[in-house]
Design goal:
The protein has about 240 residues and is mostly helical. The protein has helices spanning about 5-20, 30-65, 65-70, 75-105, 125-135, 135-150, 150-165, 190-200, 210-235; strands spanning about 110-115, 115. It has a two-stranded antiparallel sheet with strand order 1-2.
Length: about 240
């Protein structure tokens, strides 16, 4: 878990800029779209990677029936689960900050259009606020996948499928989803935090847009609600 943010940071600093260099700088539309898609990928992959790893950790307990032992300890299964979810949240939070802040400081100039870096409009406050909200998605997704998967094989299948779902907010780059129709993507929990950050990377004058804090507040409430539901669902389905 600790190494995954370093891998993503390596990709964002060294690999992704190679894709930008292969595009004709005069073709601003293609270059900007490519950069924005890569940025959305960075925003989405942090919590999803930790969710995948956490899913395997939780499924290990189901496969080995170790929750039976944990259930009779003073903390109980629910207490242990809360500890595990807090651990996943903190790791996701720190990893997202590491990737975004590291990319801004090390390679921010490589994400530039006409000499202006897209990271210029993003500060530490925006990164921390985004990480605080988006990281809730990691324990939620881990619980949801672990609740329905019977073993690690099924869990792997769910993880592969969720990898595509996690990137659905990238549809916001299409003109169709830049107006009121963007809220159709709001059913996906990571949309709200990602949309908030994209307002910083890609300022738009659409009257349908909310402000940066409002997107995060809605995302915070929605993700907490889903986290509570998935937490109860996992405890209900877990055999201990």
């Amino acid at each position: 878990m600790a190494l995954s943010p370093l891998l993503v940071l390596f990709l964002s600093v060294f690999v992704m800029p190679m894709a930008f260099n292969s595009i004709d700088p005069a073709n601003h539309t293609v270059l900007k779209t490519t950069m924005l898609f890569m940025i959305i990928l960075l925003l989405a992959v942090g919590s999803s990677l930790l969710a995948a790893m956490a899913t395997f950790l939780l499924l290990e307990h189901k496969d080995e029936n170790t929750l039976k032992t944990i259930a009779v300890t003073p903390t109980g299964a629910s207490g242990y689960l809360r500890f595990k979810l807090t651990y996943v949240y903190v790791m996701s939070f720190l990893g997202i900050i590491m990737v975004l802040l590291g990319t801004k400081l090390i390679a921010g100039d490589k994400y530039s259009i006409n000499g202006v870096s897209m990271f210029d409009s993003v500060n530490v406050y925006h990164i921390i606020a985004f990480a605080a909200v988006d990281s809730i998605f990691a324990p939620f997704l881990a619980l949801l996948q672990s609740a329905f998967a019977k073993n690690k094989v099924e869990g792997f299948a769910y993880i592969k499928g969720s990898g595509i779902v996690v990137l659905i907010p990238a549809l916001m780059l299409l003109k169709t989803f830049q107006g009121s129709l963007q809220y159709a993507l709001g059913v996906f929990p990571n949309f709200w935090a990602i949309k908030a950050m994209m307002l910083r990377f890609m300022p738009a004058d659409s009257g349908a847009n909310l402000s940066f804090p409002v997107y995060l507040i809605i995302g915070l409430a929605y993700n907490i609600l889903l986290l509570i539901v998935s937490y109860r669902l996992f405890l209900k389905k877990a055999q201990y």
